[in-house]
Amino acid sequence: MAYQLKNKQLVIDIAEPGDYKGSRFDHSGFITRTTLLEGNHSFCVPESLNPAQGTGGVGICNEFGLSKAIGYDETEVEEKFPKVGVGLLSKTNNEKYDFSENYPLDPFDISALQKDSQSITFTVLPKDCRGFAVMLVKTISIEGNRLTIDYCLHNMGTRIIRTDEYAHNFFGIDDHLMGPDYVLKFPIELSPWSDDEETMDVLSFHEKEVRWKLEPEKEFYFRIKGFEAASYPWIWELLHEPSRTGVRELSKFTVSSVAVWGSRHVVSPEMFIELNLAPGEKKSWSRVYEFFTE
Asked: In whole angstroms, what is the distance from residue 136 CA to residue 72 CA?
């Protein structure tokens, strides 16, 4: 059974834990669709339009430990290591951890409690893995045209938890393809870079804005410096100019790094937070999205 939040401005569809069966994204609070009722505008799209490609992402889904899973390096082949929000994964080889690999999975137990039509809380229960044990509580709520995701991570094990978290925001407004009709804005002057600069050829950068020269034929990816240890009233905004419809993120946590990924039908601004928790320690943070049409 899927879940839904609704008020006079927004409808938010959320998957049942376990509907997504991959080993990459957090299984709790997996937001598959957001609808702004004024104008009936939609925002969430799948990672790939080909179900046989990609890692199964859609809409607003978050991931812990993109580049380095907890305890992976010390784990022997066929032993397990934890992935926050997902479960205990089995190491299949001695290669570097790869977020895109679908590791064998023993999923965490997840409960859901929906108190009313505008709020739901998911609790991901820990399983000890060589002293690593983490409980995740995620509350998704709406007020007006804003969607808030509150996270609380509790280290219930005996070892330090070092990881990071980001939301892979798979957005395409009303299914319009990426191209000159879109602008992606940031509150800082942009100095983008990429390990493969050819992926940025389809993009143009001017001061605080990113635009598309044409519809991209392949994936694009770049990173941004300058957010570290700073606070802004909003941290990115995606606008479809012909319809004057968009979404902006107003999150207040300290951003540790920024990346932008996308392809022909989707763009995903990714704002990372670094997480270091001693045994017994808790860490809370929130992501806030504002959906609008002008």
From this structure: 20
